[in-house]
Give the backbone structure.
Amino acid sequence: MHILVIANPFDTATRIGYYYLKQFAHYAQKQGYDVILQKTPDLITLAEALLVYNPKLVVANGHGGYKSLAVGNQILIAVKSFDEATKRKIVGENPEWFAGRIVLLLTCNAGKTLAYKLVENGAKAALGFKQPFIFMSDEARDPSQDKLARPFFLSMLQTGLQMVKGKTFREACRITRDTFEYYTQVAEDQGDQNSAKYLSFDAQNLVCVGDGGVTI
């Protein structure tokens, strides 16, 4: 069984995301999955990976609009339209590429429209965030040392982590929300009001659509 992970450390936010998605990839491999990690993806390499490996789970980190997800300067997942979030006109689309798959859009905004469009075009389930995914960071050069960012990314990754352990999409999404709530309470107890505020914000904007009973 194959899992496709898409991530590229091209700026501060995605550098942290790349670190955590590598950890997820290693964990999934230990659970017996074959993981393809695309660090320098473009549309051609994405299409080839989907065709050759037929991954049942696709996990993507990058920068999201309401109707698109970009990694570096490449728009990889999109529906044809004007994207109000990125102020870009999108002339091509490919939601049908993800038919029959579970897609986790670990980025800003893509839960507003893109996640729904994927499911409308045959994806079994999709996760995203309706608004920007906001996280705190101490801007450590080494993401493994960034203690402020850790609860945000551990929460965001729970859906993937739980699904590779055999949970259904519905169960994994519930645990993801519970994890955000747990770290919100931890931050409040520690007097970190900013982290608590943004963890709660991210949880409120988490979107899970599609077949809740699906597993990898």
Remarks:
- The chain has one domain: 2-210.
